[in-house]
Design brief:
Helix content is 28%, strand content 23%. The protein is α/β, with parallel strands linked by helices. The chain starts with 29 loop residues before the first strand and ends in a 9-residue tail after the last strand. The strands form 2 sheets. An 8-stranded mixed beta sheet has the order 6-7-8-3-9-10-12-11, sandwiched between helices. The chain has a 4-stranded antiparallel beta sheet with strand order 2-1-4-5. It is built from 10 helices and 12 strands.
């Protein structure tokens, strides 16, 4: 992985440190494989809009999504999660790095190949109302998708619309209603139905439950799990709530300031976190038992600006003592293996392992 502008990458890891994430780490049957993904937005000022800097929204991200599994991408607002998801579907261009979907290079696809990708990879947006056209009925939205991709016509199209609504728990009579006539949870179900209309293999779920009530969140999460089991779907599930991510994910990647700081199986990341930022996120998850006490880790300050990232480790300005030292300020830790399949970008070996 290329070092960011913050400083040199540290290569002398602690004794438990192992190999870094590289081309040989991903399983051979991975559906999506991402290597050193970068997306920088130029900062322009002055009369002639000259470029004076860049916002490093995504700064060297590597991960993979296995077939039929869910990778949860979690982090604070502004960490680059949504930009990562939209860049992989080429809703934001032009990115740098490599991304391969079922063996095909996403960033090298022409218009015809990209149209084929749209059938195999879809997205469910965060805002269940803003992502729906208020001038179209639910049935018209679904019919339009089926017509554009030439998937069904005539009676077969109407049957498919009814089937999609039934799959997500809605009634066929809802096809003639407009988005404003539904609740937030129902609108998100419509968004899921629209994504399913092209029979995709992979769906980017961009914080699909963050705008919903807690009880409705559980319903939508259970729906996504059922659909994954029945339709053999793969998800990139983006969220800022580690409790939600733990509920639905097989694997978890923790993102901070445009970089992944921890990656592994869900049980590993939740049970034995290797990065202090992951520990802080876990401590903020509420427990259902009022008697059970959980020590809160309160981080000082806010996340630094991606336009002016700190030198060395991105997390060092907020890292709680006594873990932070001089090396954290000047060296960038790579995402290295601390246990089989469990990677973390931290210079120091965790004292709690």
């Amino acid at each position: 992985m290329m070092p960011p502008a913050g400083g040199p990458v540290r290569t002398d890891l602690p004794p438990a440190g192992g190999r870094a994430v590289d081309d040989t780490t991903a399983p051979p049957d991975a559906l999506l494989e991402v290597r050193d993904l970068r997306k920088h937005f130029p900062v322009r000022r002055g009369l002639f809009a000259r470029t004076v800097g860049a916002v490093r929204a995504v700064d060297g991200v590597s991960f993979w999504v296995e077939r039929g599994r869910t990778l949860g991408l979690v982090g604070e607002s502004g960490s680059g999660k949504t930009t990562t998801g939209r860049t992989l579907l080429r809703l934001i261009e032009p990115p740098a790095g490599r991304a391969r979907f079922a063996g095909q290079d996403i960033f090298a696809m022409d218009r015809r190949q990209l149209r084929q990708l749209r059938r195999r990879a879809q997205i469910v947006f965060q805002d269940p109302y803003g992502s729906l056209d208020p001038r179209m009925t639910v049935g018209d939205m679904l019919r339009e998708v089926l017509q554009v991709h030439r998937l069904a016509a005539g009676r077969a199209r109407e049957a498919r619309v009814r089937q999609l609504l039934d799959i997500v728990g809605l009634s066929p009579r809802h096809a003639e209603r407009y988005p404003h006539e539904f609740s937030g949870g129902q609108r998100q179900r419509i968004g899921i139905a629209r994504a399913l209309s092209v029979q995709p293999e992979f769906i980017v779920c961009d914080e699909p439950v963050s705008a919903l009530d807690v009880s409705v969140q559980a319903q939508v999460l259970n729906l996504l799990r059922d659909l994954q089991r029945e339709l053999k779907l793969s998800y990139l599930f983006i969220a800022h709530d580690l409790g939600v991510v733990e509920h639905i994910s097989h694997d978890i990647a923790v993102m901070y300031l445009g970089r992944i700081v921890e990656l592994g199986r869900a049980a590993q990341v939740i049970g034995t976190p290797c990065h202090p930022y992951t520990r802080a996120l876990l401590s903020s998850v509420p427990t259902p038992d009022p008697v059970q006490a959980r020590a809160r880790i309160v981080l000082s300050g806010d996340m630094p600006s991606p336009a002016q990232p700190p030198s060395g480790s991105p997390f060092h300005p907020r890292c709680p003592p006594p873990r932070k030292d001089a090396d954290c300020v000047r060296l960038v830790p790579p995402l290295a293996e601390r246990a089989p399949g469990h990677f973390a970008a931290c210079i120091k070996e965790p004292a709690w392992r």
